[in-house]
Structures are given as structure tokens and as C-alpha cells.
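Two records follow; treat each independently.
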Amino acid sequence: MCIRDRYMGELHLEFWKELLEENPDIHKLQGLGSRITNTVEETAEQFKRLNDMNPNNIKCLEMYGSFLKDIVNDDAEGQRILDKADYVGKSTNVNKQFVDNERLKYGENSNTCIVTCSGNFSSLGQVVN
């Protein structure tokens, strides 16, 4: 996406430079506008495919959200996607802390031991291991 961002930035810059000319070339503007539109649509399709494969890929969400905000100038959708990336990141950290706490409590280097007691009527309450 970084290469696409640069490419899109160059297209936009070329478009606006031509538009600022005293006598802008309409055909050039039309061609640039068409390339910009096609590239935005291709990028959206690629994001959709990637998002279908892994909807919680933080880097992909951040890159596409920034692309929408900075290049396409779609602040609302870009911010929504960036917010999702932030939420996924925070959720991942919370889950990681929980898993790490469980590993610390019951891992092989913990001070916790597990005692198994018998539940059979004849040996009820006896430690079996």
C-alpha cells in the first residue's frame, strides 16, 4: 500500500498541477482523473479481499484507513477503519495479558501445584498424585 500511496499522491499532484495551468488540458485531466478513480477502486477491492481473509490484521487496517484519510480524503470511513485497528490492537493486548497471566499461574515455572483428590466412595478425599 505504501507504493500505491506514493503513486496516488503523484497522480493527485499531477492532476492539480495541470488544473492550476492557465489553459489546462482537459484530456490530460480526464485521463488522470480516470487513473485516480481506477486506482482507488482497485485498492478498495484489494482491501476487501485482504479483510475477508483476516479482518483483524492491524497493519492492513491502519494502512487502508490512512490511505482513505490522506489520499482519498474520506475522513469518516478512514477514521472508522483506524478506530477498528485501534480496538483490535487493544483487544489483542488485553487477551495477551490474560494468556500471560494464566501461563504464569499454571506454567511449568510457577509456584502453583495441582493436587488431585479421589472422588471414589471408598477413598474419598485421598490425594492420588
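The next record belongs to a different protein.
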Amino acid sequence: SSGINAEYGGVERTATADEIKKAHRKLALKWHPDKNMDRQEEAHKVYQVIQEAYDCLSDPQEKAFYDKHRETILRGGSDHKSDEVEVMSFYPSSCYTDFSDEPGAFYSVYTDLFVRLAEEDQRYVEPSEWEEPPGFGTSTSPYPEVREFYGWWQSYCTKKNYLWLDELFDIRQVLLP
């Protein structure tokens, strides 16, 4: 997340769970929207990032993933240039504004993401073999539509062949001494 950094609230990357918890408490109290009535919008955004960072850093598995991929996450993606969707940028909740259907909000952001993922895959499939995935839905989608979406994407496997990566990496350099 954009709000997670090596010195989250004054603690080092090697901080213990207790140190992270204390730093979170201090930052949460400082930036809570109720304590910043004169700048509530800014405080709400900062507070949301603080909560997101704490959710990640307080969970051992999430923290391990973050630590391993920290630089990529902070940059908002990988180093290679591609027109492919960079899904890492959709992990933090800071990629959407709220849980409405408005532009920039949860349902529109993830609807666009899944449409783009499907469009990318469609390029690697013969037209006769293409199966259109169900849509992401909206805040008012009935449960059968939600179930259909999750059922389809739960067993999703990309059709991409990733041969374009050969231009970026020479596998012989990795395998040969």
C-alpha cells in the first residue's frame, strides 16, 4: 500500500508486533477524523491508509508477503513495461474511494479491472473457444449473480502464454552458471 513504509509510525521493518501495534495506536489517534474536524477529508484518507497498513503489518502472512514484495508494491507494480493489467495496484483499499457504484469507487474500479483481465485473455483465445465471464456486479446485485461471478473467477486460469516475457528475461542467464 502507498501508506506502508519501512518506518511505519517510527518503527523499523524489523519491528515486533507490539511495536507495530503501539505505532498504529499513536497514528490512529493522531489522524482519527473525529480529532481533525478542521480537515476531516484529509484525516479520513490518511486514517484509511493507516488502518490498511496496520491490517497488513499485524497479520504475519500479510506482512511476510509485503516484506517480500515491498519495493514492487510501493512502486505500484513491476519494473517491466507492458500494456497488461498490473494487479498489484488493486490490492490496497486505497485504489477505490468508497463502496458505492460511482466512478472511482469499489464496484466501478473492480468492474473495470475484471473487464480488462477478460479482454487481455480474449486476445490469446480463438473466438470460437472464448467464454465470456460473468460481470463483477454492483452494490445491488442479487446473490445468484454474485455467486456466478465468484464461481467463474474462483476457477480462473489465464489463457496468456507469457511469451512476451522472453523479451524481458533471458532464462539462460538464470539457469546457466
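Discussion point: The chain has six helices and no strands. How would you locate this feature using only the C-alpha cell line?
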